[in-house]
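# nightly structure sweep
# worker-07 picked up a monomer target from the shared queue
# config: single-sequence mode, recycle default, output format = structure tokens
# input follows
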Amino acid sequence: MKTPFKKLRSAIPRASLAKDRWRFMLLWSVMLLIFASIIARAFYLQIIDRHFLQEKADQMILRTDTIRAYRGKIVDRNGVPLAVSTPLMTLWMDPREYLEAEAERQETLQRLAADPDNRALKRRLGRNVFDLDELALAVGLNADELKQKIKDRPRSRYLIIKRHLPPATAQVILDRRFQSVYRQVEYQRFYPQAQPNAQLIGLTNSRDQGLEGLELLWNSRLAGKDGKMQVMRDRRGNRIKEVELIEPEIPGEDIALSIDSRLQYIMYRELASAGITNNARSATAVAIDVKTGEVLAMASWPSFNPNDSASGLSNKDAMRNRAAIDMFEPGSTVKPLTVSAALESGKYHTGSIIETTGSMRIGNSTIRDSRNLGNINLETLIVKSSNVASAKIAQSLPKETMPNFYRRFGFGARTDLRFPGESAGLIMPESRWGVTEIATMSYGYGLGTTAVQLAQAYAVLGAGGMIYP
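# output follows
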């Protein structure tokens, strides 16, 4: 009796090499094509496009760090430092890197719990400290606030955790190997003689860039130029070694002033004393070497402390360098210049006599002296400060004489100090040179000047008529 299995076997056609050859060829063709594609791709990546892969690899392990340039010092004429930069450390954290490393660490701990003797897993744990409570305690922060900042900024790559730490203190924290905590070298400006020099020297911001005064005027010379260093980092961002110095930093230039810090201190002390005694709003003084034009001292009271950024910068009025910025009517201080103009005109000499009667009428205005001085010479004009005698001199000269004479002394133009915010002063335009205006100008009204301009004018007299910038 025939079984169903025999019927089924007889119904299946026999296999033959001729019939299955196309399947064999198709299978090997596909395999060869796959291998050829792999080889071609490998050749392309390793030979033709190897630079692209090398750049990608370098991007993963190589970083370019900035090398901060040291800001130049400002010293007085004797080399006494008036502004110096102190190196400080800012500690910052990479929240994204920390959270990724913490997630990897937790996974490794779970696997290690199942396989306690696995040395490879133990090595993966590394030596870094992940405890944020310890980090917060080390830098003096509130642990909850630090954790909240990291939680709020999970994708951030830069979170400042502590600014302006002394290098030794920062290194102690870094040596504890807190995960994803790095340092950044910064410089903080320090002013040894703060208040006497504050308005003159000025100050810098948190990035050590000049904001006011000479710090702003000469910022490009003082700041120098930052450098660049290529460094190698591991997969967690830890710095392994320095690879290449791309661009060396260029330290800022040291600048020596003509200022004498001892004279500056004495000047400020006396200004403060006089200001307090007379219940004044402010007091300003300038000292110039008449033989060279050098400014030996320039101070204003009240002042501020540029070392105390928290409270020292709240009084904007005290930050003004009044000697160069504030303009005022010079009053009787210009009468020696009026006498100089009279002598230069040739109409007057040291023995010339001017009749004064205590007052005189010009147009609708009356010019008065404190009392009737009678007939006086030029010396008495200055000693007794006679408005009437000054006005008579101005009237006797061409109307353009006095304004142009003041310009020659430097009024109406900025000095060569080029101090930030310096005022040019004011001399009225020629269209307003009336009889009354010229008369009042001769004793210091109707024009504006600064203390620096006035000091320069007196320096001209002290130098025998020579003007030194």
